[in-house]
Amino acid sequence: KNATDDAISLFSNINAKDEIIMQPYEEYVAKFNLAFITLLQIAPTVNSVNDLPSEEEELEFIKAFRELMRLKNVMATFTEFDFADLSMEEQSFEDYKSKYLDLYDKAKSHNQIEKVSILNDVDFELELIHRDEINVAYILKLLAKLKNATAEEQEQQKKAILEMMAGDAKMRSKRELIERFIQENLPKIEDSDDISDEFENFWGKERILALDKLSQEENLNAEKLQEVIGTYMFTEKKPLRDEVIGMMNTRPSLKERKTVAERVTDKILGFVETFINGITRP
């Protein structure tokens, strides 16, 4: 009973768990297949998500795929769960999930540029995207295996690694940089044992460039910016508005203060998410 309650709490999040009675596995399969039909009515193919004509349609897609994730995560608590039982292929699920995360990124970018959007207030429930932990150390271990693979195998494995990152909420912000490391730096590394050190050098340089860009874009005092980031990492509490304003070389007007502070805070959190979170040595 406790295991079932925990599974419901972690994986489904459909209703309060005291209102949920676990139904037979077959019923969830049927519900999932019906929900898949609903999704196809909104976006018949994965690429058609890119062509949804308005944010209203995008919102409908988000709701439809979110329901699929909820149902899939409930089914995953059954020992007999098998994707082959579903009318949707597992790869298709992963591909649609990538589009779902694209819309999440879009909503985040709207918040940063203060653009009004109906997606701003959507709960994407990223906790539903539950999978084995993928971090940079894990990716580097996979890259080390590439060195001894054939050219064809290397391309297949590179593609798989990039798709894996695209489907992981925490790794998506790192994907572009890691892809550049794979394309530009990896071919020059002769010994797979050196990959970790070379990546650390690459990542350190990119982190410094990103920090400089942030301080210049927002006209921030570089030393104070590093202090605020260090405090945030230690306390895990978002910087206070006054702390953010205190970093600025030119203080915004009282009218602009709230929106400017929120924008800078979002950029700081994004920097930490990209360059610091999930970065551990193998």
Structural features, described:
The protein has 282 residues and is mainly α. The chain folds into two domains: 127 residues, Methane Monooxygenase Hydroxylase, Chain G, domain 1, CATH 1.20.58; 140 residues, no CATH class. Helix content is 64%, strand content 0%. It has eleven helices and no strands. α1 runs antiparallel to α3 and α2 packs antiparallel against α3. The radius of gyration is 22 Å and the shape is globular.
Keywords:
single chain, 282 residues, mainly alpha, Methane Monooxygenase Hydroxylase, Chain G, domain 1, 2 domains, 11 helices, 64% helix, disordered N terminus
Summarize the entry for a quick read:
This protein is mainly alpha-helical. It contains eleven helices and no strands.
Quote the distance from N terminus to C terminus: 37 Å
Main sheet attributes: strand count, strand direction, barrel closure: none
Our Rg estimate from Cα atoms comes to 22 Å
Stretches with pLDDT under 50, minimum 5 residues: 1-20
Amount of beta strand: under 5%
Q: What's the SSE pattern?
A: HHHHHHHHHHH
**Helical proportion, percent range:** 55-70%
Shape: globular
The total beta strand count reads 0
Topology at a glance:
Elements: H1 2-12, H2 25-42, H3 55-75, H4 90-112, H5 136-146, H6 151-166, H7 172-185, H8 195-217, H9 222-235, H10 241-247, H11 254-275
Helix pairs in contact: 1-3, 2-3, 3-4, 5-6, 6-7, 8-11, 9-10, 10-11
